[in-house]
Protein: Flagellar protein FliT
Amino acid sequence: MTQVSEWLDALEQIDEAIAQQLNMSDIDSEKLAQQLHDRQALLDQIAASPQAPNQQQWSQALTRTETLIDALEGQKADAAKRLLQQRKGKQSVQLYKKFQ
Structure:
């Protein structure tokens, strides 16, 4: 097994861990950030390697990347929506207190 193949296997494991993290109801943002950092480091190693990655493994990695990006964007949109609702609720409470 080549070094690039080992990195792609490690990348797959990180991707699975990130997907599990994104499916949790309470996401640990620090853990997620570390996993994304580790993923980026592996991708940098693969890109810098003179060996070409296995085409099938690389294709699967690209597909997983697209899936993870979609999931992260969905989480971001949900978080923004919750923050907006929280701000509106806070404004309503402040307005109510003003009239007490």
About this structure: The radius of gyration is 20 Å. The mean pLDDT is 89. The chain has three helices and no strands. The CA atoms of residues 3 and 17 lie 21 Å apart.
